[in-house]
Design a protein that fits this description.
It is a single chain. This protein has 130 residues and is mainly beta. Helix content is 8%, strand content 50%. The chain contains one helix and eight strands. Strands 1, 2, 3, 4, 5, 6, 7 and 8 form an eight-stranded antiparallel β-sheet that branches. A hairpin with a 2-residue loop joins strand 5 (74-76) and strand 6 (79-95). The chain starts with a helix and ends with a strand.
Length: 130
């Protein structure tokens, strides 16, 4: 029986079970800068800003307590904005680079926004006090 290269690899692959194959790692780009800012609508001099922290985005949505009251968030390209009132809350957004960026914390009434790194868009987001 003549064994061709194709039949040789077919025999080898058939002998390897799926459980023996390690999953491929997910390759993400390096996280970028995601600036955030917030202004108190009752006091325009009360402004906070910085560069957002990051983590790998997951399907889980950060939880919030009933004491955090927010208007619906809005998304426009790279930017996610939201207006909330609460204690020790953060704005967050998942960006198309695979990272979740978070800004804050804020305590009180703020109109906040966070911007995904250049070249990436905001997919979803909101506010959380946990």
């Amino acid at each position: 029986m003549k064994i061709t290269a194709l039949s040789f690899f077919t025999i080898i692959l058939a002998s390897i079970s799926i459980s023996q194959v390690a999953p491929l790692p997910i390759l993400l780009p390096a996280p970028g800068n995601a600036p955030y800012s917030a202004v108190n609508p009752d006091d325009p001099n009360d402004v906070e800003s910085g560069n957002g922290s990051f983590e790998i985005a997951t399907a889980d949505v950060p939880e919030s307590s009933p004491s955090l009251v927010c208007a619906p968030q809005y998304i426009t390209g790279r930017l996610l904005g939201i207006i909330c009132k609460g204690s020790d809350w953060h704005i967050w957004t998942d960006c198309t680079d695979g990272y979740r960026y978070k800004g804050g914390p804020f305590s009180g009434f703020y109109r906040a926004q966070i911007i995904c790194p250049e070249g990436y868009a905001s997919i979803r987001g909101g506010a959380s006090d946990h």
